[in-house]
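Researcher: I need the complex structure. Ligand is heme C. Inputs:
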Amino acid sequence: MLRRLLDFFEKSGTVDNNSREKYQKTTFARGLFVSIRYLLVVLVFCLGTWTVSSPAHAAVNQYVRRYLDVAEPVAIAVDGKGETKQFDGEDLSVGQNLFSKNCQRCHVGGSNLIDPTVSLSLEKLANATPPRDNLNGLVAFMRQPMTYDGQDESFWCREVPESWIPQEEIEKLAAFVIRAAQKGPGWGTEDLF
Ligand code: HEC
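Model: Output:
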């Protein structure tokens, strides 16, 4: 009799334990569910703010933002006589994209793979005849590439006619080259190999 009674209590104890375990499991699951829900809400909120705030930055290339100091629009010399024109990070990114597509294969990092002595460093651009470290000079060069001393047409560099890259765009390309020559770490190195 006593044995049975003990058995009975033991069993009900077990049952009790089981149900407590089940209860704990459900509260744990519910807690997990609630925290996942909170996590999702936070995630959706963050994603929302990220997508809303990103377009302003999206158009600025990483290189431009990191190295070319474009928190404010920058002034680029137009003619070497004091006149300047403003370009912002987006303009310079348009310029960089054009450069990557059309010029990089010969001028990676502002160098010159074909004739390393005529790199796109600031010093080289400034000492060319006529100087190419301003918008007008550089655009004129791209429209009709000349030798370094300005005496002859150069058939090495890529000529860029207006019908291909119109004025507004080519100025952004020129502004990118000039700004990169001023600020880009290692831009225009002649130590290629
Ligand atoms: C096929 C290779 C090639 C391509 C593509 C090319 N260039 Fe050149 N570039 C050269 C060579 C070679 C020279 C040197 C020419 C010379 O002095 O006769 C040069 C010279 C230059 C110079 C003069 C540098 C100085 O110090 O005066 C500039 C600026 C320049 N290139 C810009 C560009 C831009 C911008 C593009 C893209 C639109 C471009 N190049 C595409 C080969 C190239």
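Model: Summary of the prediction. The chain has eight helices and two strands.
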